[in-house]
Design brief:
This protein is α+β, with helices and mostly antiparallel strands. The protein has three domains: about 5-115 and about 140-175, 3-Layer(aba) Sandwich (Rossmann fold), CATH 3.40.50; about 235-325, Uridine Diphospho-n-acetylenolpyruvylglucosamine Reductase, domain 3 (2-Layer Sandwich); about 335-459, Phenylalanyl-trna Synthetase, Chain B, domain 3 (Phenylalanyl-tRNA Synthetase, Chain B, domain 3). The protein is built from 16 helices and 21 strands. It has a six-stranded mixed beta sheet with strand order 3-2-1-4-6-5, with helices on both faces. The protein has a five-stranded antiparallel beta sheet with strand order 11-15-18-19-20, with no helix packed on it. The protein is globular and about 65 Å long. About 25% of the residues are buried. The model is unreliable at about 315-330 (pLDDT under 50).
């Protein structure tokens, strides 16, 4: 979760969990040379009590010599017309605030005070809602390499004991007992009932289950990434061409995950694709037909089946199916300079490329991140450019002593012609050194003698 020298945004509500988190990170700050900034969001729901909590967080931060950033939002006003619960809106605004604060401060990580009880509650909430495996894995210890939950395996009792021993005060949120909120009903009613009548260790059991599910879900997600990678498909591309015969050879569990991955990558953030949508696409893919058949999904997503191809793409509000079928133009050329460290957004494919300079992480660490490129910085010749393929492009693939035409590489990898122009290439002044999410050039491979490594990742 932590790297020496990290700048962390610590989400502090004033409650025992977040105060214990802050204290724990302070105790670790010397060993890890941490730079801490506290962040507090006032949801505007509890009037004077909320203002007192904000002032408490400001005071404790000032006493500890830590910068504190606060913001007030009107959650009830934001809820109007959205048809969503206060809990959902509040969570969305909270993470938006934390991410914006991290960007403004240049912080690499965001720490939140979620603990074992929160994990058990989240699993039960998702179970009640009929969630799939993604919901049953609960809260991730680390999310997007940015949000960390150091207390996730710690109980509320251990947190209170720790605060008492350290002599730290905290605030108690009165809304935590309000039965209007589902989480409160589960925390204060369902879990105590389950403990008393069914399993006194239900919280531990749910957390163990979430960990098992998380591991298996991570493995299956990696399987899906490898399958799509083999087909040359980039989730989030304007139009996906799925080879139906090869797709239908996989187990239906993998089929569902592939469709879920591709559709979720095509829709705006925060919009959900449900069970019935995925089942509808699976039914379409299994329906034998020599004619073109199609399916409309939310967010202007259109899925078409024609012979051995399943197309998934977005359609503009005025675009008809016939217009969509005619829209077969290859993507335009793009080219973006990049600095080190740097981050480049490529609007043509709606993806970001992050590049940073690090010390040699070692072979084990590099193997544990298969989608990340690690390049020997001493073998790179600036300037660096991110662009798509051009006629005559060549690369010296890792493990080979001679160059290969990119066209031949795409053909060997069975990457469709219409997808090739969407794949970013990192190019220095001599040649291509990285095909994003594919491979690196043999010229820049990391060895035991490498001191500084260029770390590149597409997200």
């Amino acid at each position: 979760m932590l790297t020496r020298g990290d700048h962390l945004i610590v989400a502090v509500s004033g409650g025992p969990d977040s105060v214990a988190l802050l204290r724990a990170l302070i105790l670790l700050s010397s060993e890890y040379q941490l730079h801490l900034t506290t962040a507090h969001l006032n949801h505007g729901l509890r009037g004077t009590e909320a203002e007192e909590e904000e002032n408490f967080v400001r005071r404790i931060s000032h006493t500890l010599g830590i910068t504190c950033i606060c913001k007030t939002v009107d959650i009830r006003m934001l809820q109007i017309g959205k048809g969503r619960s206060l809990e959902e809106i509040g969570r969305e605004e909270r993470y938006r605030f934390l991410n914006e604060t991290a960007e403004a401060c240049g912080a690499r990580k965001i720490a939140t005070g979620h603990h074992r009880g929160d994990q058990a509650e989240t699993v039960l909430i998702n179970l009640i809602r009929g969630s799939g495996i993604a919901g049953l894995k609960g809260i991730a210890p680390v999310r997007d390499d940015r949000i960390i939950r150091p207390l996730l395996d710690v109980s509320r009792g251990e947190i209170l004991e720790f605060l008492n021993r350290e002599g730290f005060a905290y605030r108690v949120d009165s809304s935590n007992t309000d039965p209007i909120y589902l989480r409160n009903r589960i925390r204060n009613g369902l879990i105590p009932d389950l403990e008393a009548s069914y399993n006194p260790r239900i919280v531990t059991g749910l957390c163990h289950m979430a960990e098992i599910v998380r591991r298996e879900d991570d493995y299956l997600q990696n399987v899906v990434r490898q399958i799509l990678h083999g087909w040359g498909i980039i989730p989030g591309a304007d139009e996906i061409h799925l080879p139906t015969r090869a797709f239908l050879e996989f187990h239906e569990a993998i089929q569902g995950r592939i469709i879920k991955c591709l559709i979720e990558a095509a829709i705006p953030s925060g919009k959900a694709i449900g069970f019935r949508h995925i089942e509808a696409v699976l039914t379409l893919s299994r329906t034998p037909s020599h004619k073109r058949i199609s399916l409309d999904l939310p967010c202007q997503i259109c899925v078409e089946r024609e012979e051995d191809t399943l197309r998934i793409g977005r359609r503009g509000p005025r675009q008809t199916r016939r217009d969509k079928r005619k829209d077969t133009m290859l993507p335009a050329d793009y080219s973006y300079p990049i600095n080190i460290p740097g981050s480049v957004y490529i609007p043509e494919i709606d993806r970001h490329i992050h590049i940073e300079l690090i010390d040699n992480p070692g072979l084990l660490a590099m193997k544990s991140a298969p989608r990340v490129a690690f390049l020997d910085n001493a073998r790179i010749f600036p300037p660096l450019i991110l662009r798509n393929t051009r006629p005559g492009d060549r690369i010296e693939p890792l493990g080979m002593a001679e160059t290969k035409k990119m066209k031949s590489y795409f053909i060997d990898r069975k990457i469709p012609r219409e997808c090739r122009g969407r794949i970013p290439l990192l190019v220095d002044s001599r040649s291509i050194i990285w095909i994003a999410d594919e491979l690196i050039s043999n010229r820049v491979k990391v060895t035991e003698q490498t001191k500084h490594v260029l770390r590149a990742e597409m997200v």
